[in-house]
Structure formats: structure tokens, C-alpha cells
Amino acid sequence: MYLTRKIYSRWIKITHYEFWPTAIFYAPGIIYYLWRCWRNGYLGLLSVANPGMLKVGIFQAPKVGVLNQLAQKYPEHIPNSLSLVEAERNNWPKLTDAFMKLHELKFPIIVKPQIGQRGADIKLADSREQLLECLADIPKLSKHQDALYMLQEFTPGIEYGVHYARLPNEDKGWIFSLGRKDSIFLQGDGVNNLKHLIMKHPRACIMYKVHLAKHKDKLDWVPAKEEEFKLVEIGTHSRGAIFNDSRNLITQDLSNKIDALSKGYPGFFIGRYDILAFSEKDLQAGKNFKVVELNSVMGEPPHMYHPSNTLWQGYVALFQYIKLVTVIAKENILLGNQPLPWREFINTTRKSYNQLT
Q: Which residue intervals of the chain bear CATH 3.30.1490.20?
């Protein structure tokens, strides 16, 4: 059975663009972006889509700083976070203990990069022992570098990606995309071990290498009959989460709340909020949710990766997004904001790419 499932996995990865390497899927989008830059006369349009984030990160601003900015007006929607500064590495255990005590936090807790994409290196620590292991695994940085990792309060709930946009010459923004990030649950039968259940599951087996590596210590475990096992803990596509188009959930109440949050960050016009809501109704009402991240222009519209999308639908979503980013950027230029010179833009792009890979 394993051979046929591996063949099936390979076939799905070839025929379904949501599993393609980023460089391959984005190649036409890059060409389209360059054409729009040529048409508008500026190569670095991306750098001025969110002028308020220009100095902290064109593509990915440090997460704690962004969340702290949002928390100034809406602290009830922001989870507690702590920057892990390289110069204080030896004191990280004491600092994390003090942080959790101060905010009365219990495990689990999130450890993740402040600058990153697609969920790379995000870890969930279920105990202090696991937390110390996560801290020890963080690569050493130059003492001259900023804090590139962080701790974040774990927030239970349903995870959504909410993509927001506002034209600079307009007072009101809107939700461009909304997607629910679903985990994969395996159901035990009391006979087969976890490895067999992963390979048998039609979705889990597509990314079997990721799941087998993640749960390598549990592969021989046999779940009891009807026992559920949550295969994916963190809602990122690269870790196995499923992005379901949920634009039908957009309401005026939600739009108003996201618009108000966004205006709390001066110079922010387009990006994706990663949100954990207590329930679907709470999300639609714009209440009882936490913003775990706010991604700048590189935050992809979540509906773009809906499993049943055709390749055409995927590219329509991508090209619409690129066009919207460049329209916002051009309006910001007309308002007096200047994009980075093309040499600096290329160097910044290269540096950001190296940080994200």
C-alpha cells in the first residue's frame, strides 16, 4: 500500500498547484509584477505599498513590533508576546519563566521566528522541558542583529487568514480574502498504527514526509478505536493545514473591526491578518478573536489555495492581488511616498528572500 500512496502523493503534487514549489507557481506572477512596474515607471513598487512598514521590513516586519503597534488601541485582540534578544541568550530560560508568570500563562506556548514565511520553524512547546529544547535549537545570531525569534501566548480557536486592503485616497478599507485554516484529524481503528493511518488518509499522505518526520516518535503507536489524533497543530499550509475559501463569512461587523485595527498602524494599507477566533459567529461579529500575526505584502490571499481551485482560479487570485498591491503603491507615490531605488530594492529583496528560506 505504501508504494501506491507514495505514487499518489507524487501525482497530486505535480497536478495540484497548491503543492508546487513557490518559485514555479509564482514565475508568471513575477513577470506580471515586472510588467506593471515598467508600466508605472518604478521597479520597487512593493516597497511603498505599506510605507509605514518601509523601515521595519518591506516584506516581513518583525512580528512583535507590529503586534505592539496594534495593541496600542486594541490590546484585547493581541496575544502576549516576548522578543528573544541574542544578547540575552543565556538568560532566556529566566526571561521566559518571568514572562509566563507575569501574564499567568500556561503551556503550551509558541516559539517562532519574528521574520519568516509559510510557517517555517514555528514550534509548539507543551512543557518547560520542550520549551528549553526549542530555545536551545534557535540558531545563534550576531550580537549586532535584532531579535529574530519570539515567544507567543498560545491561543485556542479556529484559525483564519483575513486579507485586508485600503486605497490610500479612501477612508474605508475592505476584506479582500478570507480563508479558514483547517487541521487534519486521523481517527484510530484500534488496529493500525499512526504511520499506516497517515499513509491511508487521502490528504495526509500527500505530505507524508512532513507528517512522518514531525511524528517520528509516535509512528508505531496504535490509536484506540474512534480515538481522534490531531495531525497538524499549526495552521500553515507548508505544515499540512488545509486552506478553505471562507469569503462567504465576510460581514460588515468583521470588515469594520479589521478596518479599525488596520488604521491603528499608520502607513499600513494591505496585508493578511492571521486570526484565531473562538467561533465562526464570533469572527463574523468581529469579537472574541486574537491577531497572532499581521503579514505585509508577502502575506498571500488564503482563498488562493482552496483545495478544489483550478490552476486558472489560482492565477486569477494571484494576478488580482498583484494588481491591487501595485495600484495601492502607485497611489502612495502620488501622495509623496517614494519607493526604494531599484538597486536598494533588489538588495533588500535578496536579503528578505534569504531570511525567508
A: 80-154
Yes or no: domain 1-79+157-183+232-357 corresponds to CATH 2.40.50: no
- Locate CATH 3.30.470 in the chain: 1-79+157-183+232-357
Quick check: helix, strand or coil at residue 295?
strand
CA distance 289 to 283: 7
CB atoms < 10 A from the CB of 301, how many?
A: 22
The angle, 0 to 180 degrees and rounded to 10, between the axes of the packed helices 22-40 and 311-334 is: 40
Say what the pLDDT of residue 248 is: 98
Element (H, E) at 113: strand 109-113
What's the CATH number for 80-154? 3.30.1490.20
Least reliable range by pLDDT among 8-17, 90-99, 114-123: 114-123
SS3 call for 158: strand
Is residue 278 within 8 A of residue 310, CB to CB? The reply is no
Report the distance separating Cα 37 and Cα 171, nearest Å: 26
Residue 161, beta-bridge partner list? 179, 274
List, for residues 83-118, the tens digit of each pLDDT value: 998 888 999 999 999 999 999 999 999 999 887 656
